[in-house]
TrEMBL record:
Listed transmembrane segments: none
CDD domains tied to this protein: RNase_HI_RT_Bel, RT_ZFREV_like
Location of the RNase H type-1 domain: 540-686
Any GO MF annotation of the entry: RNA-DNA hybrid ribonuclease activity
InterPro entries: DNA/RNA_pol_sf (IPR043502), Integrase_cat-core (IPR001584), Rev_trsase/Diguanyl_cyclase (IPR043128), RNaseH-like_sf (IPR012337), RNaseH_domain (IPR002156), RNaseH_sf (IPR036397), RT_dom (IPR000477), RT_RNaseH_2 (IPR041577)
The protein's name: Uncharacterized protein
Occurrences of domain Integrase catalytic (ranges): 809-899
Taxon lineage: Eukaryota, Metazoa, Chordata, Craniata, Vertebrata
Biological processes, Gene Ontology terms: DNA integration; DNA synthesis involved in DNA repair; DNA-templated DNA replication
Protein family according to the UniProt entry: Belongs to the beta type-B retroviral polymerase family. HERV class-II K(HML-2) pol subfamily.
Pfam families (UniProt xref): RNase_H (PF00075), RT_RNaseH_2 (PF17919), rve (PF00665), RVT_1 (PF00078), zf-H2C2 (PF09337)
Location of the Reverse transcriptase domain: 106-297
Native source species: Papio anubis
PANTHER family: PEPTIDASE A2 DOMAIN-CONTAINING PROTEIN-RELATED, POL PROTEIN
Length: 899
């Protein structure tokens, strides 16, 4: 090119080899894509449409006013005071920028002067890529004081599912200043006043709106319902046309170009007659390819627009938790096009903790880049065709469910949507086959929003249909099992197909194509049992048939315990246990001793203890999955005895541990053997047990010092107490409690703890019973116990987080509830959901039909039905769905007490 740069006094000049000036365009790197974007061709026919229907266009007919709509009245919450927020200081440039808009709205009658006790500030907002300003009113204080109405605006996530893919000619209309088309009642206009000063027009005071204002929380719903009602006649006259309305954005879809033209003419005529105005600049009339709600519609498919992709791609690397959330919100709009979005975004969600400092890890950076890369290769998704069945391919990986919805298009299967969602902590702790059931249920619920109740053919890597029909008796509660069976075992809607070689949900083929798929029932049986051949029925070829029992009872204020192993007629082993041993511990000791004595034999052991039976058959596998922890994350009781039992399960050659009912009539050999074991254990419990003598250290002198050594802080604290008398310098309160110096009290507690290792509350109670008192008693006792190394090593303390795969169980009715929503199909009288509460102790169920699945409904049912009848629960468990973690529900739980 031979370019030359000359630096002259009037500025730099760039010339070519012929000394001719060259124009240079400089742009930033992130704006480079504008150079490669094709310029949209102007619509050559828009002038014809403007001439034929001038009343329908804002450029021709001016500001619209709905002719058949009454003035809207805004209802306030009871007892509401006027909201007053003063106007923020406004830069002169910004004020000059919004002044033309205010004057135009005054001339059009949309604004008028007023005197109102209400006031909210006006904010000037600069338009992107320009120096223009537009006025935006901050109506947050007004929105807080106005009664909420149920939003009926369509969900954009599922909105286009109603579009027939055979209709491939489109018209898109955007109504101009749509909210200003609806008048506002005079008594409601005072709510939206703001301050404005315009010396050129002699205005100094308040202005308010005569039309429905922008920024008001109910404006989208009110306008959407009004326009939908006004266009009802048009829909009846054009049944062959599909008309979609999202607030003020209209889409016409027709099968042919001629039908689209006729439908567009009818719609423009209707809009003009009704008083609404469309924007000619944004109109897309009778085209096979249009942009609507950020989607590109073409040939019955929907694509992500380049602008939408660039919005996400231009987001820089987040530097704070808020920026991470902003990126997830922008990228989440495109999640239907990204396979496994929840799995990809998992490290980013982990980088948004509530109180912890922000940390950007390598995993988060990798996820950030993978999501951007996936957007660049976002495929075209077909529009759902409700006349055809849908295929749902499901997969689960690392606690994240993902699925692909497809429909047949000739010999191909065209994707309709990609779905992904994280499993709740309980389901994430289950074995793989059960996790697949939970993942399938989640994906079927999400797919229902798109398939509109049509036939769904489900493909999973596991044969979950057989597992649901013959469910395992462990891991799942009855409520969970009923929910999954009711949702998935519906032959009229859901059909399970055999697993395929290539599952689109995982994008990975089955690595072992020749081997048969595994049997889920067999896998679950292996997962559930500690010993694979452990039986719960008597062995037909048993060498030994024994009975075990542990007895623990109170007698004259003392707890006695014993354990025994017997046959039907004779005692095999018996031993008294230390005083205070619980019945459960005694049962474990007896069963473990029977396994030890039956080493190398074919042994059948009967026990009437459900605790010992369940530990051997059920809980052993659960403890192995999550560690020796309870559902609350605490260390299990009788840990050593349980470990010994699980170890000794392998001693016999063949083993059957059989549960038999206790306290039965002696009419069968089993009842006789169980009775003998029970009587033997109870009898030996009162026998003197061998005790280990301990020599305790000298407790020291029992008398107090003659004179006390009170500190200055002690004396200040004593002055605030009701005192009775003084003896030799010792203070005594009105309850005859001697007040010790804090230093002496600490020495007393340390001496007590060294000799007894009592807990904090036990030591406090001992001090109180001894008629002693000193400053900071509870805090001192707690610090002594906490700093004791022996206590920390031997005592079980609560863990910070419960293990996954578990649900808590209450100790009495009404203490712990599980709550969940389930969908009712078909609904009746507007009731589409069932809110179910299950008491985990008794299994008692309370179910309430509801019209909505919201946090307000949950809080209302707890307040009106659960609390008055059952009292305040300790804890309410859920799957952390939106209805249970929303702000109203969290605020209610925080104030009422349960966690």
């Amino acid at each position: 090119m031979g370019a030359q740069i000359h630096f002259l006094p009037e500025g730099p000049v760039v010339t070519n080899s012929h000394n001719q000036p060259v124009s240079v365009l400089t742009i930033t790197l992130e704006d480079e894509y504008w150079l490669h974007q094709e310029q949209a061709a102007p619509d050559q026919d828009i002038a014809t449409w403007l001439q034929q229907y001038p009343e329908a266009w804002a450029e021709m007919g001016g500001l619209g006013l709905a002719k058949h709509r009454p003035a809207l009245f805004v209802e306030l919450k009871p007892g509401t005071d006027p909201g007053r927020v003063r106007q923020y200081p406004m830069p002169l440039e910004a004020k000059k920028g919004i002044a033309p808009h205010i004057r135009r709205l005054l001339d059009q009658g949309v604004l008028r002067p007023c005197h109102s006790p209400w006031n909210t500030p006006l904010l000037p907002v600069r338009k992107p890529n320009s120096g223009e300003y537009r006025p935006v009113q901050d109506l947050r204080e007004i929105n807080k004081r106005v009664v909420d109405i149920h939003p009926t605006v369509p969900n954009p996530y599922t909105f286009l599912s109603t579009l027939n893919p055979k209709h491939q000619w489109y018209t898109v209309l955007d109504l101009k200043d749509a909210f200003f088309s609806l008048p506002l009642a005079p008594q409601s206009q005072k709510l939206f006043a703001f301050e404005w000063n315009d010396p050129d027009r002699g205005i100094s005071g308040q202005l308010t709106w005569t039309r429905l204002p922008q920024g008001f929380k109910n404006s989208p719903t009110l306008f959407d319902e009004a326009l939908h009602e006004d266009l009802g006649e048009y829909r009846c006259k054009h049944p062959e046309i599909t008309l979609l309305q999202y607030v003020d954005d209209l889409l016409i879809a027709a099968e042919t170009q001629e039908a689209c033209i006729q439908g567009t003419k009818g719609l423009l005529q209707a809009l003009g007659n009704l008083g609404y105005r469309a924007s000619a600049k944004k109109a897309q009339i009778c085209k096979p390819e249009v942009t609507y709600l950020g989607y590109l519609l073409k040939e019955g498919q929907r694509w992500l627009t380049d602008a939408r992709k660039q919005t996400v791609l231009q987001i820089p690397r987040p530097q704070s938790t808020r920026q991470v959330r902003e990126f997830l919100g922008s990228a989440g709009f495109c999640r239907l096009w990204i396979l496994g979005f929840a799995e990809l975004a998992k490290p980013l969600y982990q980088a948004t903790p509530g109180q912890q400092p922000f940390r950007w890890t390598d995993e988060a950076e990798s996820a950030f880049q993978q999501i951007k890369t996936a957007l660049l290769s976002a495929p075209a998704l077909g529009l759902p065709d409700i006349t055809k069945p849908f295929h749902l391919y499901v997969d689960e990986n690392k606690g994240v469910a993902k699925a692909v919805i497809t429909q047949n298009l000739g010999p191909w299967r065209r994707p309709v949507a990609y779905l992904s969602k994280k499993l709740d902590p309980v389901a994430a702790g289950w074995p793989p086959c059960l996790r697949m059931i939970a993942a399938t249920a989640l994906m079927v619920q999400d797919a229902d929003k798109l398939v509109m109740g049509q036939e769904l053919r489900v493909v999973t890597p596991h044969a979950i249909e057989g597992v649901l029909k013959q469910p395992p008796n462990r891991w799942m509660s009855n409520a969970q099992l009923t929910h999954y069976q009711g949702l998935l075992l519906n032959p009229l809607r859901i059909t399970f197909l055999p697993p395929t070689t290539l599952n689109p949900a995982s994008l990975l083929p089955n690595p072992d194509l020749d081997a048969p798929l595994h049997d889920c029932t067999e896998i679950l049986a292996q997962v559930h049992g500690v010993r694979e051949d452990l039986q719960d029925r008597p062995l037909p070829d048993a060498d030994l048939i024994w009975f075990t029992d542990g007895s623990s009872f109170m007698h004259q204020g003392q707890r006695y315990a014993g354990a025994a192993v017997t046959s039907e007629t004779e005692v095999i082993w018996v031993e008294p246990l230390p005083p205070g041993t619980s019945a459960q511990k005694a049962e474990l000791i007896a069963l473990t001793q029977a396994l030890t004595l039956g080493v190398g034999k074919k042994l059948t052991v009967y026990t009437d203890s459900r605790y010992a039976f369940a530990t051997a058959h059920i809980h052993g596998a659960i403890y192995r999955e999550r560690g020796l922890l309870t559902a609350e994350g605490k260390e299990i009781k009788n840990k050593q005895e349980i470990l010994a039992l699980l170890t000794d399960l392998w001693r016999p050659e063949k083993l059957a541990i059989v549960h038999c009912p206790g306290h039965q009539k002696l009419t069968t050999p089993t009842a006789q053997g169980n009775f003998l074991a029970h009587q033997t254990a109870r009898k030996v419990a009162k026998a003197p047990s061998q005790l280990l003598a301990l020599q305790l250290p000298d407790p020291g002198p029992q008398d107090l010092p003659y004179f006390p050594d009170y500190s200055e802080q002690d004396l200040q604290w004593i002055d605030k107490l009701p005192l009775k008398q003084i003896q030799n310098g010792w203070w005594t309160d009105t309850n005859d409690q001697t007040i010790l110096p804090e230093k002496l009290g600490q020495q007393v507690l340390e001496h007590i703890h060294r000799t007894t290792h009592l807990g904090a509350w036990r030591m406090i109670d001992l001090i109180r019973r001894s008629k002693l008192k000193f400053r900071h008693t509870a805090e001192t006792a707690s610090n002594i116990v906490t700093s004791c190394k022996v206590c920390q090593l031997n005592n079980a303390y609560p863990q910070s987080q419960a293990a996954t795969g578990t649900r808590l169980r209450g100790t009495r009715p009404g203490i712990y509830w599980e709550v969940d929503f389930t969908e009712i199909k078909p609904g009746k009288y507007g009731y589409q959901y069932l809110l179910v509460f299950v008491d985990t102790f008794s299994g008692w169920t309370e179910a309430f039909p509801t019209k909505k699945e919201t946090a307000q409904v949950v809080a209302k049912k707890i307040l009106e039905d659960i609390l008055p009848r059952y009292g305040f629960p300790v804890q309410i468990g859920s799957d952390n769905g939106p209805a249970f973690v929303a702000k109203p529900c969290r605020k209610f739980i925080k104030k009422s007490g349960p966690s």
